Amino acid sequence: MANQISVRYLGHACFEFNFNGTKVLMDPFVTYNPLAKHIDVSELKPDYIILSHAHQDHVADLANIQAQSDATVAAIVETAAWVRKQGVPDEKVIEFNFGGTLTLPFGKVKMVYALHTNSTPDGAYGGAPCGFVFVIGDKKIYFAGDTALTLEMKLLEDLNLDWAFLPIGGHYTMDMYDAVKATDFINCKNIIGMHYDTFSPVKIDNAEAKKVFAEANINLNLLELGSSIDL
């Protein structure tokens, strides 16, 4: 049976994947996102929540969404420890680390490198930040998380990625120009932009972003907040 994979953009770096009927929520930050006022957090009922790191703008809605959905949460070891402290039952937390691959009912999730920092909202050490490669049937999707441009991305170039989610806002992550370089490192032509326009430091010129990606013959998708796309 063919894969039925889609993703809905909920703002910033928050996306809701639908992997053949299983919903996987990435980096839940909606309530405090000034651009996401029309998104109803109470309607989010993911089966899994996956965290790239524990900065506030990636975990602010974690506890509420997990409580209302009974989702299983996956994260790097130290961030997973913080998740447990938020009242998430131990049996609903999966901790893993770089190089580790989870085999879950919807597919596989491998943790890969990201160049950034990481702390929990209370200022504690959150372990390292990370990205993920999803393998869903014959589809391979890279979710970079918050990252600068790094040569570690070249380790992904032979995976034949179908899609990549890359930050493009600059200031806290790589900008649109470094993201174009990243597409060459990872050998992927289909890009969904993230981590831009939410706050003043990461506001970008959307037309310029589309231009620089088009000039590199890269398919950049800047999704409307709340909209979905098939992958």
UniProtKB/TrEMBL annotation:
Electron transport among keywords: no
Key words of the record: Hydrolase
CDD domains named in the record: metallo-hydrolase-like_MBL-fold (cd06262)
Matches recorded under Gene3D superfamilies: Ribonuclease Z/Hydroxyacylglutathione hydrolase-like
Cross-referenced SMART domains: Lactamase_B
Domain of life: Bacteria
Ranges of residues in domain Metallo-beta-lactamase: 11-195
Leader peptide range in chain numbering: none
Keyword Chloroplast on entry: no
InterPro entries found in the cross-reference section: Metallo-B-lactamas (IPR001279), RibonucZ/Hydroxyglut_hydro (IPR036866), UPF0173_UPF0282_UlaG_hydrolase (IPR050114)
GO molecular function terms listed in the Swiss-Prot or TrEMBL record: hydrolase activity
Protein name per its UniProtKB record: Metal-dependent hydrolase
Species this chain originates from: Sphingobacterium litopenaei
